[in-house]
């Protein structure tokens, strides 16, 4: 049985440590998609690129899920619920964030994305009985400040307006989708939760692509890819989406969406490290932001600072 689908059930501090390590791995993989997308968007439209990304991610995960859990388990999965979670949570979230960046600018999009922990914590307060304590509140503030610093963006440099409403809604959808994939599909393995909900996101992206094509809107063009282009697309689809999402949901099952979402704000720091290995430069601002974020994550989980009803783990996890 794959370690991705079934793991020994950790408890207490061990469960917390594993959850944080899984989230670090998930966001590090997620960060590899940014440099890849920057190159691919030179010749591909955003709608066509996000659609082929989802298709390739599902092409990897669904066969693996069938081999690991078995064909009968896959066919007996609660598909209507999984597809709904994937389409509404991840599909809508992906498309809306893309629209926000298109109608504003990267600075505004980065700042809006850095507010996702707010959406995640609100969901836990409303539905999971989370109680805000001094340690958790202080940790959340450090995570938000660290995330803003890590983006390298300044408030005065952003173009804000009605788009911020769409951006915040997109963040809420991502947070809701991540929470529902674990809470709403408790009898499925983590691999099953990931694959089935990504199929829902893929279908939403395909419908969006078809609508854009029929309406003649921009963003659906593509281009032939050479070996380098295919390598970047595989990194973007398999590493930054398929594997990242699988590890992400495992982390959410152990930490809850609130704490797990804190790790998302470290993605600009991971991007900097990736670019550093390819000739980029060190950015002390991003390093400082990541350090503040790390302190915030630790502080928010300190002893009984996180008080909430338990989030069910994936079967065997």
Features:
globular; 317 residues; single chain; 0% strand; 73% helix; mainly alpha; 14 helices
Task: Note down, in words, how this protein is organized.
The protein is an all-alpha fold. It has one domain (12-305). It contains 14 helices and no strands. Helix 3 (46-69) packs across helix 11 and helix 7 packs across helix 9 (163-183). It is globular, with a radius of gyration of 19 Å.
Q: Count helical runs.
A: 14
Mean pLDDT: 85
Compute the number of strand runs.
Answer: 0
Q: Ranges with pLDDT <50 over ≥5 residues?
A: 1-10, 305-317
Separation of termini?
A: 12 Å
Please give the radius of gyration in angstroms. 19 Å
Helix share bin: over 70%
Characterize the largest beta sheet: strand count, sense, and whether it forms a barrel. Answer: none
- Which structural category fits the helices and strands? mainly alpha
What gross morphology would you assign?
A: globular
Approximately how much beta-strand content do the residues carry?
under 5%
Structurally, the number of domains stands at 1
String of helices and strands:
HHHHHHHHHHHHHH
Blueprint of the fold:
Blueprint: H1 12-31, H2 33-40, H3 46-69, H4 71-75, H5 79-103, H6 106-113, H7 116-127, H8 134-151, H9 163-183, H10 190-215, H11 227-255, H12 257-262, H13 267-277, H14 284-300
Helix pairs in contact: 1-11, 1-13, 2-11, 3-10, 3-11, 5-6, 5-9, 5-10, 6-9, 7-9, 8-14, 9-11, 10-11
């Amino acid at each position: 049985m794959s370690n991705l689908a079934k793991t020994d059930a950790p408890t207490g501090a061990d469960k917390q440590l594993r959850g944080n390590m899984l989230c670090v791995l998930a966001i590090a993989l997620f960060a590899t998609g940014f440099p890849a997308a920057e190159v691919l968007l030179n010749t591909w439209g955003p709608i066509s690129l996000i659609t082929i990304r989802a298709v390739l991610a599902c092409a990897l995960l669904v066969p693996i899920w069938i081999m690991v859990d078995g064909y009968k388990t896959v066919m007996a999965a609660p598909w209507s619920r999984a597809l709904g979670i994937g389409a509404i949570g991840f599909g809508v979230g992906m498309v809306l964030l893309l629209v926000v960046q298109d109608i504003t600018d990267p600075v505004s999009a980065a700042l809006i994305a850095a507010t996702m922990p707010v959406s995640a914590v609100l969901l836990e307060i409303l539905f999971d009985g989370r109680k805000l304590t001094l340690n958790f509140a202080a940790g959340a503030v450090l995570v938000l400040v660290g995330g803003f610093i890590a983006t390298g963006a300044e408030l005065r440099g952003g173009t804000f307006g009605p788009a911020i409403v769409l951006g915040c809604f997109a963040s809420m959808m991502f947070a809701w989708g991540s929470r529902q994939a674990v809470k709403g599909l408790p009898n499925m393995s983590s691999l099953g939760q990931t694959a089935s909900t990504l199929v829902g996101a893929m279908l939403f992206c395909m419908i969006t692509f078809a609508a854009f094509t029929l309406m003649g809107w921009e963003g659906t063009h593509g281009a032939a890819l050479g070996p380098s282009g295919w390598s970047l697309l595989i990194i973007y689809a398999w590493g930054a989406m398929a594997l990242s999402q699988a590890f992400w949901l495992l982390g959410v099952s152990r930490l809850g969406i609130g704490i797990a979402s804190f790790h998302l704000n470290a993605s600009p720091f991971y991007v900097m490290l990736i670019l550093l290995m390819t000739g980029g430069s060190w950015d002390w601002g991003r390093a400082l932001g990541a350090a503040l974020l790390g302190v915030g994550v630790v502080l928010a989980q300190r002893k009984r600072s996180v008080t909430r009803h338990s989030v069910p783990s994936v079967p065997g996890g």
